[in-house]
Amino acid sequence: MTETDADAAPDAPEAAAADPSLETVLEELRTLRAETERLDTRVTDLEDELADRTETVDTLEARIADLESQLQDSDRRLESCESETERLDALTEATRNRTGATKARLEELQARELEKGAHLRASNVDVHEVDVPGDRLERVTKSDGERYVRLPNDDDPLERETTVALAHADLLPIQQLARLDADLRRSSTDALPTRLAARLWEARADPAVDDDPWTEGCKSVREYVTAGDLKHWIRRQEPGTSDAYAKKLVSRTIDAILELSNHRLAVRKRTQRKNGLEYTERRLLLPADAEIPGETTASSSTPSDSSSKPSASSGTPSDSSSSDRSNDREPDAPDPETADVLG
C-alpha cells in the first residue's frame, strides 16, 4: 500500500457518515418499523372487536329466532282466541234473542193475568213494558210486607189471606220519602235537611239500619232522640261536616221531620245535670199516642197483639182494637185506593 492509500483509508468512515442519504434511509426504516408495530397492534384490536361483534350477532340472531318462535305461538293463540270470541258472540246473540222472546212472552202472560185481576210481586214485573188497558198499574203493600202491582182497585181473585195493608197515599210524607232509595230521594229533593229527616225516620222504622240514634222511651213517649245524639248522627251520615254546621243541620232536620210527619212528632226541652252543671237539651220525640199509618199505638194495642203481630218497623200494619171493630162492621170492605199509580 502506498502512502497515498494509507492516508485515504482513515477517511472512509468519515465519508460514509457524511453521506446524508444513508441517514435518511435509516430514519425511514425506523419510522416504518414503528408504523408497522402500530398497525399490528391495531389489527389485533380490530380482530378482537370483530370477534366480540360476531359473538353479539350470534346472540342476537338466537334471540330473534326465539322471538319469532314466540310470535308464531302468539299468532296461533290469537287465532284461537278470535275463533272462540266469534263462537261466544254467536252464542250470546242467540241467547239474547231467546231471552228477548222469553221476556216478551212473560210480559204478555203478566199482562193477561193482571187483566184477570192478579196481584203480582212488584220485583217480578217491569211496569214500563207490561201492556195493560189504560197503561196504569197500582203498587200496593200487603200484610206480608211484600210490594205488589195490580190494575187500579182490583181485588185479588184468589182471595188469599194476605190483604192490602197500606197504600202509598195513606203514608205520611216522611214515610214516603223514607221508602225511597238514596238516588230517588236525592232526585226528589235537593234539601239536605229533608233527606236527613227521611234517613232519620228510616233508621227508626227499619231494623236493618245499623246506625239508629233513637232511644226507646216510656209512658207517654214511644221513642226519642236528643239533639246531641242527632248532631253526632248527622256527622256520621255526612262525613266532613263541621261541628258548627252539624248544629245548624240539627235544627233544620228537626223542622223538616216535624213538617213531613204532619207534626205527629214533637220537640220538648229537658233540663239535665252533668259534671255538676245544669243544661237544657232538646229532644225530638214520638208520642205514644201518635197515629202513624201502619204502626200500632200503645193505646190501641195489647201485649198479645204486640208479640204476635208483625212489628211496625217491618213496614206492615199490626191489628188493633179499632181495626177489629171496623172489620166486624165491614167484613167485605174493598182494598183502599192508592195514589201510587204507575202509568
Automatic annotation (TrEMBL):
Recorded superkingdom: Archaea
Extent of Acidic residues compositional bias: 333-343
Region (Disordered): 1-23, 278-343
SUPFAM superfamilies noted in UniProt: Tropomyosin (SSF57997)
Biased composition (Low complexity): 9-23, 297-324
Name of this chain's protein: Uncharacterized protein
Species assigned in the record: Salinadaptatus halalkaliphilus
Lineage: Archaea, Methanobacteriati, Methanobacteriota, Stenosarchaea group, Halobacteria
